[in-house]
Design brief:
The chain is 0% helix and 27% strand. It is built from no helices and 20 strands.
């Protein structure tokens, strides 16, 4: 019997390595082609040779575009890329230049590292790799000034010159329509039997609230509102009512005041009505002016209600159709003493 010839197959030798006696690389032959179009088609079960380009890079036929879970019939051979499925990316860190495999979650979604949180115009240093999404900035972004593309075309995003993304918001769906063919704009809200939510702070982001019939709950401004400006005893210093900043009259333009001032035995007090259109953020810095008002008690116009020592002054004042931004009552004790005053002011507002 003829003995088989023993051969030694050595691989993993670098390209262009010296073929010394101890280093015999395993070489796989291929036909070099500038482009693989000159290769003659073969039939099923034919023996074939590999084809490489002129840089020794192997030509490969990558077939893709097959839907996920589609049947792999003979005419559909999707290009499949391997990855390791992990519930959490707990893999060991690797070094720069290492060959690594891809990682997906348990739903085949590729895990990626999205580095962001970099300030606009910040330098892209080695430690700052912001995720950048390209868009074309246009100065006149009215729809009629933009190029129209066909359905199925690949289009780019568009921003204005301030980097704000331009979007098409579709609405105008008739109320009660069954189908969403017009893509109506839908705004979410929380349905509540009663408005039992906790109060929020100024500038908080909040959600809308509806009743159980999807009707939006809104705050209605009452046409008439009665409030107390002051109901105080032992007043021994100057004061402002309802506050130093006064009442903003944007909603309520007509105000009536009733009440009384009981002055201490040794005091003399003066109540005046002040107004201003000055919107300084600090109320004390606003330019307040005392005005004449109509007294329903005396059927007269006066600019102050003076109360002598030990006396009581009744108040009934009308401020009709105010044309000023702010209004307040100023209580001035001109001769304070140990005997303190009582101030009662009840206001009624009427909406404009």
């Amino acid at each position: 019997m003829t003995q088989p010839t023993m051969i030694r197959v050595i691989g993993q030798v670098a390209d262009d390595a010296a073929n010394v006696a101890t280093e015999i690389p395993l070489k796989i032959g291929a036909v070099a082609e500038d482009v693989p179009t000159a290769v003659t088609d073969v039939t099923d079960a034919d023996k074939v040779h590999l084809v490489a380009d002129l840089k020794r890079r192997l030509w490969a036929h990558a077939v893709g575009g097959v839907a996920d879970a589609a049947a792999n019939v003979t005419t559909e051979h999707p290009l499949k890329m391997g990855a390791v499925a992990e519930a959490a990316p707990a893999g060991t860190g690797i070094a720069d230049g290492d060959i690594a495999h891809l990682i997906t979650d348990l739903y085949r979604r590729l895990r990626v590292l999205a580095e962001g949180a970099t300030a606009d115009d910040a330098q892209d240093s080695a430690n700052l790799n912001p995720v950048k999404i390209g868009a074309r900035a246009v100065s006149n972004a009215a729809p009629e000034n933009l190029d129209v593309i066909d359905a199925g075309d690949v289009g780019h995003l568009i921003t204005d010159t301030m980097r704000r993304l331009l979007v098409n918001v579709c609405g105008n769906q008739a109320d009660g329509a069954v189908a969403d063919s017009a893509n109506p704009i839908k705004i979410g809200a929380v349905a509540e039997t009663t408005v039992a939510g906790t109060g929020v702070a100024n500038a908080d982001i909040v959600h809308l609230v509806t009743d159980l019939y999807r009707r939006l709950r809104v705050v209605q401004v009452p046409q008439v509102l009665t409030v107390s400006w002051a109901d105080l005893s032992n007043v021994s210093a100057d004061a402002y009512y309802p506050s130093e900043g006064g009442l903003d009259t944007d909603v309520y333009g007509t105000i009536t005041l009733t009440g009384k001032v009981i002055c201490g035995a040794d005091n003399t007090s003066v109540l005046t009505i002040e107004v201003t259109n000055d919107e300084d953020a600090t109320p004390g810095n606003r330019d307040w002016q005392a005005i004449y008002v109509y007294s329903n008690l005396t059927d007269d116009v006066l600019n102050q209600v003076a109360t002598l020592a030990g006396a009581t002054s009744q108040i009934a004042i009308s401020l009709n159709d105010l044309g000023f931004k702010y209004v307040r009552a100023k209580y001035d004790i001109t001769r304070p003493a140990a005997n303190n005053d009582t101030v009662i002011l009840k206001a009624q507002y009427r909406a404009r």
